[in-house]
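for ur thesis appendix - ABC transporter ATP-binding protein. copy paste whatever u need, i formatted it the way the template wanted (i think)
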Amino acid sequence: MANAKSTNALSIEGINKVFGRPGKPTVEALRNIDLTIKEGEFVSIVGASGSGKSTLLRIIDGLLPATSGVVKVSGAPVTKPGSDRAMVFQQDALLPWKSVRDNVAYGLVIGGTPKRDAHATAMRFIEMAGLKGFEHHYPHQLSGGMRQRVNVARALAVNPRILLLDEPFAALDAQTREIMQSELLNIWQKSKTTVLLITHQIDEAVYLSDRVVVFSARPGQVREEIPIPLPRPRDLEVKRHEAFGALVDKIWHLIEHEVRSAVADNRA
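the 3d part is after this line
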């Protein structure tokens, strides 16, 4: 359910990224990426391994400079990490000595929010993430899926304009991953945050997104943007519908050759 506003939360304009390697040829990771994401929209990027998807996410977050081009958040150029963006990585990266509540509040506290206020905000997002009753547990007492929910809650607690998700469920088993996709949708529908997700799972991208952006093999380029017209709210049952399967097949056919080539190269 994309927000009805026409404002662009994120604008990616002519982004190129070339990595230099001492004594070796340069590697062109991204070529002329143009992409806009509206306020409240959920967009996923899919493509073969090595197509620059995670590189783009790090450029958007300000962790990596582009070789050329510009990224704008609400019209302002990105030059470094900022509180208007929050990143969730594949591994949860929670602080093991802190409770769930203190992990979720951590970004607020280091940003100068009084601890009492930070804890109150943390509890709101803990409840949103379905973790009420676990706020005093520690990461080692939680399942992998629960830890990733804490990770998402921590990212949302700082009230980012954009939530960047880099394969957040890749380390989970298949069944837990399905449940986490549903949980993420529930959280997103409540928070109304703009989301950009990187994933290798085409069905995950179709299930979650308003739009799926298909990248070519390296150098990564926008090959096609696929609107996802499936009605919201969505539950996991939608994955068994013919329209869902048709969208998955369409995207798979766009990248199948490159995915097979990437697998063959990795085996060589």
